[in-house]
Design brief:
PH-domain like; 6 strands; 3-stranded antiparallel beta sheet; alpha+beta
Length: 181
Amino acid sequence: MTQENDIQNGQPDPGFAVPDSQDPPYTRLDERAIPYWRLGCGLSWFIPMLLLLGLAIGVGWGVFGQFLLSLSLWVAWGVGVLFWTWFYPPRAYAAWGYRRDGTVLELRSGVWFRVVRLLPLSRLQHVDLRRGPLERWFGLASLVLYTAGTQEAAIGIPGLDDAVAQSLRDALVAGGGDDGV
């Protein structure tokens, strides 16, 4: 099977892997992360868009007498928000992945700016499992991994299935280090 067929058939995305590498493949997030991110983004823009609509009507009609101009600007902004809400989450989902071997957890993310983080399991301090109301509704959870240090000491893995997040947390804690830091 070719690499393109693997990706289309739901196999883990090889992402940044070197073609002849012995590294395990990246594991994708749960597909329910896409509608979860869409809903979260839409809800976060709902109140600001209502406020901007009121401002567009009030300023456009009352101050400048340019109601259609201000409403047109609001609609243009709304189209941008709609684009961001609908088209960005699938791209973010495709960019996310993680893989674990015996000593390192490797995370990749980023749509425009690709980020690859390596977390030596020996430096793992503790792991939190977070489930907000929307995440619980979608059956998802986020893992937050804490390491020693002050900058970038917390690394998150969003959009995991609840059961997968719990088993990954348990596996990371069991395989974590005895660094004592």
